[in-house]
Amino acid sequence: MRTTIQNAVLILAAVAARAQETPRPALPPLPAAQGVPKPGPATDAPYAPLPILQGGVVVTLFPAGSPFLKMDRIKEPEQYNVSQTVPGRINSIVNIHNPSIEVHTVDRGLNTGAAVILAAGGGHNTLNVGGEAADFVPFFYNYGVNTIILRNRLRRDGYNPQTDEVYDAQQAIRMVRAYAKEWNIDPNKIGIMGFSAGAELAAPSTVLFDDFDKKNSGADDPLAGISSRPDFVGIIYPGPSPFARNRTAPPIPRNVPPAFIVCGGSGDRGHAVWAIEYFSAMLAISVPNIEMHIYGVGRHPGDALPDGSHQTGGLTDRNNTPYGTWQYRFIDWFRDLGFLQKPGVETKAAKDVATFAKQPGR
C-alpha cells in the first residue's frame, strides 16, 4: 500500500515539475499612454498655448503686437519637461514667450464664484506647473473654487521678474475679471496664489495695481477700466516681496487685499524672512485679515534632505508633518473671510477692506 501511495506522489510531483517547465505564453505588450499633452506646433503665427489638463480653456494675455511681447520670439513653441514615470504629467514648462492663462471652472451646483490664479515657482528658471498649479485644480474643485493656471514668462528667457513677470500676473487678474460672467466667476472673488518665485508675482500685485491700471487705460486696450487688484492673495514659501530689506517699499494702498502667508521656519530661513517682511509691513498699519503660518519643521521645495532625497512642495504631505496640511489652513481662512459662500454674496473680506479704507492712514 505504501508503495502505491509513494508511486502516486512521485507521479504527481513529476507532472507538476513538467508543468513548471512549460513556458507560459507571453503577456501582450502594454499600450502607449494616451492623451499625453504636447506643446503646440511652430507656425508663422504667434505661438498658441495648449491646455496641460483636460478641459482647460487657454487665453493668451496680450494681443498680437502688444509692446509687452517680444516679436522676435513670439512664434517659439513652449517646451515641456514631462515626468519620466507618470505618463502625461507635465512637471514644468520653459520657453514661454506668449504668456497665457488656463481656466478650469467648477459645476454650477458647487460653484462659489471664487477663482484663484496659480502662479507656480521654479526660481524664474522653470515654471513648475505640476506640483504648484495642476495639482491644485482638483483640490480647489472640491470646495467650489475655480482655478486658473498662469503661464508667465521667465528670467531664463530674458524677462525681468520685477516687471515682465509681474505684468503677466496683473494682466491675468484683469483678464479673469473681464471674462468673469462668461466663466460664472464672481468678479469680487478673484485672487492669486504664488509659490516661491511665483509669490514674487503675487505679492506685488497686492500693492501695485493702481499704477498698472493707469498705465494700461488707453482707448485701444480692451481691458481698460478693468481692475488688476486681487481680492485675496496666497503667499506660499515666498521669494522677496516689495518689502524685502534691500528694496524701496512702495506705499500700501488702503484697499490692499487680505493675505494668507505660509513657510517653513529655520529650515527655510531665507524664505521665512521674506514671508515675515511682507506680514510685518501689513501688520504695521493694521491691515485686516492677514494670516501667517511659519512651521517649525519644513524646508524649501528642492532642498536636499538628510537621507539624500529632496523636499517637495505644493500639496505633498512632507513626510506627514503639520507643514503638509497648510492647504487646509488656507481653506479655513478662505471660508472665514466668506469666499466659500454663493456667488454674489459680499464677503467679510470685502466689508473689512471697505472699513479699513475709510480709516485714517498710519
Mean pLDDT: 92
Shape: globular
* Proportion in helices: 25-40%
The major sheet is characterized as: 8 strands, mixed
- What's the gyration radius in Å? 26 Å
Order of helices and strands: HEEEEEHHEHEHHEEHEHH
Q: Total number of helical segments?
A: 9
Q: How far do the termini sit from each other?
A: 106 Å
Strand content: 5-15%
The number of distinct β-strands equals 10
| Main sheet: strand order | 1-4-6-5-7-8-9-10
> Stretches where pLDDT falls below 50 for ≥5 residues?
none
Structural class: alpha/beta
Give a structural overview.
The protein has 362 residues and is of the alpha/beta class. It has helices at residues 2-21, 130-134, 136-141, 161-178, 199-205, 209-215, 269-284, 326-336, 348-358; strands at residues 57-60, 79-82, 90-94, 100-104, 115-119, 146-151, 190-195, 233-236, 259-264, 290-295. The protein has an 8-stranded mixed sheet with strand order 1-4-6-5-7-8-9-10, sandwiched between helices. Strands 2-3 form a two-stranded antiparallel ribbon. α4 crosses α5 (199-205). It is globular. The termini are far apart.
Which properties best describe this structure?
alpha/beta; 10 strands; 362 residues; 9 helices; two-stranded antiparallel ribbon
